[in-house]
Amino acid sequence: MNHVEIFRLLFYCEIQFSRMDPMADIPFLTRVRRILPELHPAERKLGELVCNFPGELASYSASELADLADVSNATVSRFVRRIGYNSYEEARRHVRLEQASGSRLYRGAVKDSAPRALGSYEESDIRNIQDTLQALDTAEIEDLAQALLKARKVWVFGFRAGAPLANYLQWQLLQVIDNIVALPGNGQTMGEHLASIRSTDVVLLFGLRRRVAVLPDLMSGILEQGAQFALISDEGMPPQSEASWHFRCVTESPGPLFSHTGVMALLNLIANRTIEAAAAEGRTRLAAIEAANDRLNEL
Question: What InterPro entries is this protein classified in (predicted)?
Answer without folding.
Answer: Homeodomain-like_sf, HTH_RpiR, RpiR-like, SIS_dom, SIS_dom_sf, WH-like_DNA-bd_sf
